[in-house]
Every structure is written in C-alpha cells, then in structure tokens.
Amino acid sequence: MSQAYAFEVVYPSEKKIVTSNDYAFIYGKANSAESLSINDKSIYTASNGAFAHTVKLHEGENRVALRTLYGLTIYKYYKTIPVTQEIPIEEFSPVKAYVNHDNVPLRTTPVDAGLNRISHLFGGTHIVINGSKGSFYRVYLAKDKTAWIAKKDVTLTDEGFYPAEFINMDSERFKNAMIQTISFSKKLPYTIEDGEKEIIFRVYNPELSEESVYNLNIPKPEKYAYTVTLEEGKYTFKVRKLTENIKEATVVIDAGHGGSEKGAIGCLGDEEKDINLKIALQTAEFLRKHNINTVLTRECDANVSLDDRVNFSKENGADVFVSIHLNSIGDVPMDIHKTRGTSVYYYNENSKKFAEVMQKEITRIAGTRDSGIKTGSFAVIRPTEYAAVLVETAYMTNPQDSMLYRNDKWIKKAAKGIAEGIVDYIKK
Ligand SMILES: [Zn+2]
Fold it and tell me: 27, 55, 178, 366: which sits with the fewest CB atoms below 10 Å from its CB?
C-alpha cells in the first residue's frame, strides 16, 4: 500500500469497466485509521482494513470515486443495456439420434444451469428428437413427456426406427440395499424422480409406442443414496441405506479449488484455496481422532479437476462428502454487511437433511451468521452415490468475516463444526 493512496482495491482489477450489471461491487483494504468514502458516502472499514461496497449503476457512464484524506481513485463504469432475445422452439418430425458420450444430462428446460437435470444418460443411448431451441434438442420420451439435451452431446442419424426389445426385469433385496434391474436389446433413455416415499426410475421406449414407460419404484430409507449402472443393455438401479455406524462410514473431505484455481479473493487479498485447505486438514484431523475413516481430495496446494474429485469419492466408497469453500458476491444488489456467514448447499433431495444438520453445527460452533441452506448445481455435489454438501463457511468478500478467516482459532472452530455436522448426521 503506497503512502499516497491509503487504500488498495482488490476488485475490480480494471479502472474502466463496460458492464450490463445493475450494480458494481468494489472491495479491498484501506487504512482503518483514515475514513474511506465512496461517492461521498462514508464506508465501514474493519479493524484489519477490509472494506466492501456496492454502487447502483445507471445507463451510460458512471463515476465511482474512492477517497481518503490522502488519496482519490476514480473508477469509470459504462453500463450497457443487455440484449435479450427469445429464441422460438423449432418443431420437426421425429429424428433418431445417439448420445455420443457418457454422463450426458437430460434436462427439464433448454438451459445449462440450475436444478433442471432429470438424469444422466449413458453413451450410445438411442433417443428420438422432435424439436430444437438454441443449443438444445427436445427429446421425445412418451406421450406428453419431453426433455432437453445439449446438441453437442448427441449425433443425429438417418437410421430407421426400430423399438428396443424388452428382455427381463428382476429385483433383489439386501440388508441395507434394494436393487432392481431391467434389460433391453438397446440402450434407452431414463429419468429419476425422488418421490416422497420412493425413488422412481422410468425407462422410456418411444420407438415402440407413446405409452411404453417402465416404472421401477424402490422405497427409500430415511438416509439413502442411489446409483444407476448400465451393462450390456441391463440397467441396475440400487438404493442403499447409509450406515448409522460411524466406524463403518467413509468420509470424503474436499478442499475447494487449489493450485492455479485460487477461488475467491478476499478484501485483504487472501486466496480462498488456502483457507479451504486449512479448514479441510483440520476437519480430517478431528474425524481421524475419532477413528472415522477420512480421505481428502487434496492435501496440498494442487490443481484437482472436478471430475477427479468426483471419481475419487466414488472409488473410495464415500458415504458422505463435504466440499469446503468460502463464499463471495459478484456485481449484485446485496447488502454487504448482511451478506456474510455460513450457507450449506445441496443438489439432490437425499442430501437435504445432511445440509440442515451441517448448517446447524457450523453456525453453532463457529459462531457465524446463519445464512441458511440452499440448493446449488455444483459438479462435486451432484452425484447420488453418497450424501453430499458444499459448505460456504464464511464470505471472503465480507469485511467482518475477514476477521474470522484470518484467525487460526476460528479456522479450528469451523473445522470442528464441519466434523460435528458429519458425526451428527451419520449417527442421528
Ligand atoms: Zn470456492
């Protein structure tokens, strides 16, 4: 920090910005002894110097002036009006297509975001397409039942229509799991519905008739996980009860980001990846002290891909999975001083209870503001093979939270909160 400018802006990194956002978010560090103002409004600065503020932008040029006794810096935002164009659905006669690789999401809407995934199709699945919108095709499943799939994930063919032959169906009950299988002469699309009392797997054979839907219902225990596998036309749907014996459980702890992926940058320039790792290592230490089988997706500052994190968890037979992060806000209209504390995210219904227990334990033990549980479509928590949550322990961009995450005692408390959340969820 130079003497002449007694503040340093961490975000934004440029002084001239073209944006279509309605708000500009600005944060960094200032000398807490000098009063900082932004557009003549006095700004709260934490005792460590952290500050954050949002400014509402109007159309055209906006000047945002940061001023202290010794310094003045002006940011210029040029706000453009976003062009939104509704693309119509193009209807066409049914065409045959193949899913061209594994793990392709089938969605309820033609949007690559949110909680709209209804299943993940296997490479080679035969589908029928009868419409298109933007970068998505509409998939015909049965009468009054369609879904959406990304165009890049399918290959159209001009082959004739021939329905899959149903071969057989079977079910098996084990002590802690129930398995149902169904076989066809070729790979068909399926959907999964997590109902009130059961999980419903539906396999569609649209080339046979509009009524050809095979339902497999498996009652679900209170704490459960499920898998879908496919081998030579045989689908295996398995719903298992999660262990309540802590000594039998496998816990995966995932420190978010790492290596060149820094994650969010805090008001004082701290990198999220480093704080995630500190909390993750201490969480593992707590769990191992209680003889709980715990594995980490990274134990040092390294790049680990999202796929590798997921595959690692599956290979290790995870029962529960916790991804550790710290939150940040973007150019959105949020009250900076209320946007702090802990939020726990889940994606699948089977992880909701885990999120609730985790939220309660972290806020109780780490003393953070309770910002509630939320749903979020993060790749690491989408698998259904285990209960999975993503924990945003505090906000990197909140001045008050920066007092927490820079304090080793708080790091320890956050880790203890996460460990207690895991133990509580498994045992209860
Ligand atoms: Zn993160």
Answer: 55
